[in-house]
Amino acid sequence: MSAAVSMSRVGRADIHIHTTMSDGEGTPLQVARVLARSGLSVAAVTDHDTVAGALRVREALAGHGPEVIVGTEVTTADGHVLALFVDRDLPRGLSARDTVALVHDWGGLAIAAHPFFPIHSVGDLAVRLPFDAVEVANGTPLGELANRRAARRLGPAAPAVTGGSDAHRLAAIGHVRTHFPGRTAADFRLAIERGETWAVFDWDTHLAVSPAQLLAMAWRAVRGRAGAPRPGSRIEKPAA
Fold this sequence. Notes:
By secondary structure, the protein is α/β, with parallel strands linked by helices. Helix content is 32%, strand content 22%. The chain contains 7 helices and 9 strands. The chain has a 9-stranded mixed β-sheet. The chain starts with 9 loop residues before the first strand and ends in a 15-residue tail after the last helix.
Protein backbone atom coordinates (compact mmCIF):
# COMPACT_ATOMS: atom_id res chain seq x y z
CA MET A 1 0.00 0.00 0.00
CA SER A 2 1.28 3.44 -0.88
CA ALA A 3 2.03 5.68 2.09
CA ALA A 4 0.12 8.40 0.28
CA VAL A 5 -3.15 6.46 0.60
CA SER A 6 -5.06 7.46 3.73
CA MET A 7 -6.55 4.50 5.58
CA SER A 8 -9.84 6.40 5.69
CA ARG A 9 -9.89 6.22 1.89
CA VAL A 10 -9.11 2.52 1.59
CA GLY A 11 -11.94 0.48 0.08
CA ARG A 12 -12.63 -3.11 1.09
CA ALA A 13 -13.91 -5.50 -1.56
CA ASP A 14 -14.79 -9.18 -1.60
CA ILE A 15 -14.90 -10.07 -5.28
CA HIS A 16 -15.49 -13.84 -5.12
CA ILE A 17 -18.87 -14.78 -3.61
CA HIS A 18 -21.33 -17.58 -4.47
CA THR A 19 -25.08 -17.98 -3.93
CA THR A 20 -27.64 -20.72 -4.49
CA MET A 21 -27.76 -19.66 -8.13
CA SER A 22 -24.72 -21.95 -8.44
CA ASP A 23 -23.20 -23.94 -5.56
CA GLY A 24 -23.40 -21.49 -2.66
CA GLU A 25 -25.51 -22.20 0.41
CA GLY A 26 -26.95 -18.72 0.86
CA THR A 27 -29.77 -17.41 -1.32
CA PRO A 28 -29.21 -14.07 -3.04
CA LEU A 29 -31.46 -12.46 -0.39
CA GLN A 30 -29.44 -14.01 2.45
CA VAL A 31 -26.17 -12.92 0.84
CA ALA A 32 -27.56 -9.41 0.44
CA ARG A 33 -28.44 -9.29 4.14
CA VAL A 34 -24.91 -10.32 5.13
CA LEU A 35 -23.35 -7.82 2.75
CA ALA A 36 -25.54 -5.01 4.11
CA ARG A 37 -23.84 -5.33 7.51
CA SER A 38 -20.41 -6.46 6.31
CA GLY A 39 -18.51 -3.19 6.26
CA LEU A 40 -17.44 -3.88 2.68
CA SER A 41 -17.53 -1.00 0.24
CA VAL A 42 -17.64 -3.19 -2.88
CA ALA A 43 -18.70 -6.81 -3.48
CA ALA A 44 -18.72 -8.98 -6.58
CA VAL A 45 -21.09 -11.94 -6.70
CA THR A 46 -19.53 -14.53 -9.01
CA ASP A 47 -21.71 -17.60 -9.33
CA HIS A 48 -20.48 -20.32 -11.65
CA ASP A 49 -21.37 -19.56 -15.27
CA THR A 50 -24.23 -17.19 -14.45
CA VAL A 51 -24.67 -13.54 -13.54
CA ALA A 52 -28.15 -14.22 -12.15
CA GLY A 53 -26.98 -14.31 -8.53
CA ALA A 54 -25.21 -10.98 -8.82
CA LEU A 55 -28.25 -9.34 -10.40
CA ARG A 56 -30.52 -10.66 -7.64
CA VAL A 57 -28.18 -9.56 -4.85
CA ARG A 58 -27.89 -6.10 -6.35
CA GLU A 59 -31.66 -5.87 -6.60
CA ALA A 60 -32.13 -7.05 -3.01
CA LEU A 61 -29.63 -4.53 -1.63
CA ALA A 62 -31.29 -1.68 -3.55
CA GLY A 63 -28.38 0.65 -2.86
CA HIS A 64 -27.93 -0.29 0.81
CA GLY A 65 -24.57 -1.79 1.76
CA PRO A 66 -21.66 -2.31 -0.63
CA GLU A 67 -21.81 -1.46 -4.28
CA VAL A 68 -22.34 -4.71 -6.19
CA ILE A 69 -20.23 -5.60 -9.21
CA VAL A 70 -22.05 -8.02 -11.51
CA GLY A 71 -19.81 -10.96 -12.23
CA THR A 72 -19.49 -14.68 -12.78
CA GLU A 73 -16.88 -17.42 -12.39
CA VAL A 74 -16.54 -18.85 -15.87
CA THR A 75 -15.68 -22.50 -16.45
CA THR A 76 -13.11 -22.48 -19.24
CA ALA A 77 -11.25 -25.39 -20.84
CA ASP A 78 -8.17 -24.32 -18.86
CA GLY A 79 -9.64 -23.44 -15.47
CA HIS A 80 -11.83 -20.90 -13.72
CA VAL A 81 -11.83 -17.23 -14.70
CA LEU A 82 -13.56 -14.44 -12.76
CA ALA A 83 -15.35 -12.07 -15.11
CA LEU A 84 -16.29 -8.76 -13.47
CA PHE A 85 -18.34 -5.86 -14.83
CA VAL A 86 -20.23 -8.11 -17.25
CA ASP A 87 -24.01 -8.08 -17.57
CA ARG A 88 -24.67 -11.46 -19.19
CA ASP A 89 -23.51 -15.05 -19.05
CA LEU A 90 -20.38 -16.08 -20.90
CA PRO A 91 -20.19 -19.43 -22.71
CA ARG A 92 -18.65 -22.34 -20.85
CA GLY A 93 -15.81 -24.42 -22.23
CA LEU A 94 -13.90 -21.87 -24.28
CA SER A 95 -10.15 -21.63 -23.84
CA ALA A 96 -8.96 -19.24 -21.15
CA ARG A 97 -7.47 -17.06 -23.88
CA ASP A 98 -10.78 -16.80 -25.74
CA THR A 99 -12.67 -16.21 -22.52
CA VAL A 100 -10.38 -13.36 -21.47
CA ALA A 101 -10.73 -11.82 -24.92
CA LEU A 102 -14.52 -12.05 -24.73
CA VAL A 103 -14.62 -10.49 -21.26
CA HIS A 104 -12.57 -7.59 -22.59
CA ASP A 105 -14.77 -7.30 -25.67
CA TRP A 106 -17.76 -6.96 -23.34
CA GLY A 107 -16.04 -4.24 -21.31
CA GLY A 108 -15.23 -6.38 -18.28
CA LEU A 109 -12.21 -7.36 -16.22
CA ALA A 110 -10.78 -10.90 -16.28
CA ILE A 111 -9.10 -12.29 -13.16
CA ALA A 112 -7.31 -15.63 -12.85
CA ALA A 113 -9.07 -17.40 -9.98
CA HIS A 114 -7.03 -19.48 -7.49
CA PRO A 115 -4.41 -20.21 -10.19
CA PHE A 116 -2.57 -23.02 -8.37
CA PHE A 117 -5.46 -24.93 -6.83
CA PRO A 118 -5.35 -28.63 -7.83
CA ILE A 119 -8.45 -28.40 -10.05
CA HIS A 120 -10.24 -25.79 -12.15
CA SER A 121 -7.22 -23.49 -12.24
CA VAL A 122 -5.27 -21.83 -15.04
CA GLY A 123 -1.80 -22.13 -13.48
CA ASP A 124 0.96 -20.16 -15.19
CA LEU A 125 -1.50 -18.98 -17.84
CA ALA A 126 -2.40 -16.40 -15.21
CA VAL A 127 0.60 -14.33 -16.29
CA ARG A 128 0.97 -15.62 -19.86
CA LEU A 129 -2.46 -14.40 -20.92
CA PRO A 130 -3.70 -10.79 -20.71
CA PHE A 131 -5.53 -11.15 -17.39
CA ASP A 132 -6.23 -7.90 -15.59
CA ALA A 133 -5.32 -9.40 -12.22
CA VAL A 134 -4.39 -12.61 -10.45
CA GLU A 135 -6.13 -13.88 -7.31
CA VAL A 136 -3.27 -14.54 -4.89
CA ALA A 137 -5.43 -15.00 -1.78
CA ASN A 138 -8.48 -17.28 -1.82
CA GLY A 139 -10.47 -18.29 1.24
CA THR A 140 -11.12 -21.92 0.31
CA PRO A 141 -9.98 -24.23 3.15
CA LEU A 142 -6.72 -26.10 2.49
CA GLY A 143 -5.81 -23.59 -0.20
CA GLU A 144 -3.13 -21.89 1.87
CA LEU A 145 -0.12 -23.41 0.11
CA ALA A 146 -1.59 -22.69 -3.31
CA ASN A 147 -2.16 -19.09 -2.23
CA ARG A 148 1.43 -18.76 -1.10
CA ARG A 149 2.70 -20.21 -4.37
CA ALA A 150 0.53 -17.82 -6.37
CA ALA A 151 1.70 -14.81 -4.37
CA ARG A 152 5.38 -15.71 -4.71
CA ARG A 153 5.43 -17.03 -8.25
CA LEU A 154 2.79 -14.93 -9.99
CA GLY A 155 2.31 -11.87 -7.81
CA PRO A 156 5.42 -9.99 -8.93
CA ALA A 157 4.55 -10.48 -12.62
CA ALA A 158 0.81 -9.84 -12.31
CA PRO A 159 -0.61 -6.50 -13.46
CA ALA A 160 -2.64 -6.46 -10.22
CA VAL A 161 -3.37 -8.85 -7.36
CA THR A 162 -6.65 -9.62 -5.62
CA GLY A 163 -8.06 -11.53 -2.69
CA GLY A 164 -11.51 -13.07 -2.44
CA SER A 165 -13.31 -15.23 0.09
CA ASP A 166 -14.67 -17.68 -2.52
CA ALA A 167 -17.51 -17.83 0.00
CA HIS A 168 -19.96 -20.68 -0.41
CA ARG A 169 -21.21 -20.14 3.15
CA LEU A 170 -22.56 -16.90 4.57
CA ALA A 171 -20.06 -16.81 7.45
CA ALA A 172 -17.14 -16.76 5.02
CA ILE A 173 -18.19 -13.61 3.17
CA GLY A 174 -15.62 -10.84 3.44
CA HIS A 175 -12.90 -12.70 5.31
CA VAL A 176 -10.52 -12.47 2.33
CA ARG A 177 -10.58 -9.14 0.58
CA THR A 178 -9.05 -6.85 -1.99
CA HIS A 179 -8.18 -3.43 -0.61
CA PHE A 180 -7.81 -0.43 -2.90
CA PRO A 181 -7.61 3.37 -2.88
CA GLY A 182 -11.14 4.79 -2.96
CA ARG A 183 -14.56 3.50 -2.02
CA THR A 184 -16.58 2.78 -5.17
CA ALA A 185 -16.69 0.10 -7.85
CA ALA A 186 -15.26 2.65 -10.28
CA ASP A 187 -12.38 3.27 -7.84
CA PHE A 188 -11.84 -0.48 -7.58
CA ARG A 189 -11.68 -0.85 -11.35
CA LEU A 190 -9.23 2.02 -11.66
CA ALA A 191 -7.05 0.49 -8.93
CA ILE A 192 -6.97 -2.83 -10.82
CA GLU A 193 -5.99 -1.02 -14.01
CA ARG A 194 -3.23 0.84 -12.15
CA GLY A 195 -2.02 -2.17 -10.16
CA GLU A 196 -2.84 -0.46 -6.87
CA THR A 197 -4.66 -3.28 -5.07
CA TRP A 198 -3.52 -5.62 -2.31
CA ALA A 199 -4.94 -8.76 -0.71
CA VAL A 200 -5.96 -9.01 2.95
CA PHE A 201 -6.58 -12.32 4.74
CA ASP A 202 -8.49 -12.55 8.05
CA TRP A 203 -6.95 -15.64 9.60
CA ASP A 204 -9.15 -15.71 12.72
CA THR A 205 -12.32 -15.90 10.63
CA HIS A 206 -10.68 -18.33 8.21
CA LEU A 207 -9.87 -20.79 10.98
CA ALA A 208 -13.32 -20.39 12.49
CA VAL A 209 -15.29 -21.06 9.29
CA SER A 210 -13.01 -23.64 7.63
CA PRO A 211 -14.35 -26.80 9.36
CA ALA A 212 -17.93 -26.10 8.25
CA GLN A 213 -16.71 -25.13 4.79
CA LEU A 214 -14.79 -28.40 4.47
CA LEU A 215 -17.90 -30.38 5.39
CA ALA A 216 -19.91 -28.42 2.84
CA MET A 217 -17.27 -29.05 0.16
CA ALA A 218 -17.37 -32.79 0.90
CA TRP A 219 -21.16 -32.81 0.70
CA ARG A 220 -21.15 -30.97 -2.61
CA ALA A 221 -18.69 -33.52 -3.98
CA VAL A 222 -20.87 -36.44 -2.86
CA ARG A 223 -24.03 -34.76 -4.15
CA GLY A 224 -22.32 -34.07 -7.48
CA ARG A 225 -21.42 -37.72 -7.92
CA ALA A 226 -25.02 -38.59 -7.16
CA GLY A 227 -26.23 -36.53 -10.10
CA ALA A 228 -27.19 -33.18 -8.60
CA PRO A 229 -28.64 -30.44 -10.83
CA ARG A 230 -26.13 -28.39 -12.77
CA PRO A 231 -24.93 -25.09 -11.27
CA GLY A 232 -27.37 -22.30 -11.94
CA SER A 233 -30.43 -24.54 -11.86
CA ARG A 234 -31.46 -23.82 -8.27
CA ILE A 235 -34.04 -21.05 -8.17
CA GLU A 236 -34.67 -19.08 -4.99
CA LYS A 237 -38.23 -19.51 -3.74
CA PRO A 238 -40.08 -16.35 -2.76
CA ALA A 239 -40.63 -15.82 0.94
CA ALA A 240 -43.98 -16.99 2.26
